[in-house]
Specification:
Order of helices and strands: HEEEEEEHEEEEEEEEEEEEEEE
Strand order of the largest sheet: 1-2-3-5-6-7-8-11-12-15-16-17-18-19-20-21
Largest sheet: 16 strands, antiparallel, barrel
Structural class: mainly beta
Distance between the termini: 27 Å
Shape: globular
Helix content: under 10%
Number of strands: 21
Number of helices: 2
Oligomer: single chain
Low-confidence stretches: 13-19, 302-306
Mean pLDDT: 87
Radius of gyration: 21 Å
Amino acid sequence: MTRSLLAVLLLASAAGAAAQPAITVDASAVVQSYETGPDRSVSEVAVPILVVAEVMDGLSLSARAVYASVEGDGLSSLSGLGDTQLGVSYSRPVGAALIDLSLLSSLPTGQTALADDEFATAAALALDDFAFALPSFGQGATFAPALAIAVPSGENMALGIGAAYATHGGYTLFAADSSTYSPADEIILTTGVDIGLGGLSSFAIEGSYVLYGDDDYAGQSFSPGDKIAGTMRLTLDGGAARAQLLARYRHVFDGVVPASGRPVAYRRPQQAQLALSLGFGPRTAEVAVTGGARYYGTVSTPENGIELASFLAEQQVLLDVGGTAAVEVSPGITLHAGGTYTQGLLEAVGGQTLTGYRFSGGLRLAL
């Protein structure tokens, strides 16, 4: 739940070059639909709203809420708010270093205690392959303080390290079972380096390791397995044209699961992504084309009697092609839109390759 460490230093540098808006509001609508064959589809319409307020120099507050509606073949419809995310961040230079203290929390406004058919819908919603805008309605309260430090190292280079601790409140999974599911607490360690390449161009590498405690459910404890992730980002900015290349990998290690299984599990322990974006025009009227590929490792499905594997290929390779546009129609008012078509390369069990789309549009206000 930590923010990008080196982004802290870059944002602070940008703030010194130009005045930042006191309040930014971004409201949008996202429509996504995917299928793996006849009568095997799932769709979501989501409306996320993000508000960020800089209350004083270096101190900012944020709030994010999402309303979504989900439906699919053989699935019960499910709609409502997701959990509401709140954040506070304070950044302060100390000598040559920049220190960022933040606190992220999640209010349990999302629906829990689901009926069995609703839980099946929620489980399909959480599948990594679909990358829905709202992958979960309710997961209980979360409280996560974090510390990040970025320091210059040589010419046009910054190093960052950070740590966070996330604790999660328990919540009820099933309406017919009052047992409380208590997700494991997390310790998140992050490090990275950012190298300036002149102007707004840069090369950055960031890695993280997440150590998990034990989940508890119905009197049993089990470990979800630690997680390691790495991200590389190359940004080239030529003024009227710009490009960004992104590479990301994540691996979840095997945990300890009791013989009865666990109600919640990682669907895809191994994930990799490669994405390229090419932007053109001034930043007040930018158009970009995007493309990339995603790999998801072997499906891991909880042993709770809900058949999710029928939605998916055992392993998954997805190609994404799309574009975005953002136009500042007047000072402080920006309209933005985007679309992505997804094509899978591997067939689902007893079905076809995954295909689908994502369209979004919204309004950003800088006050």
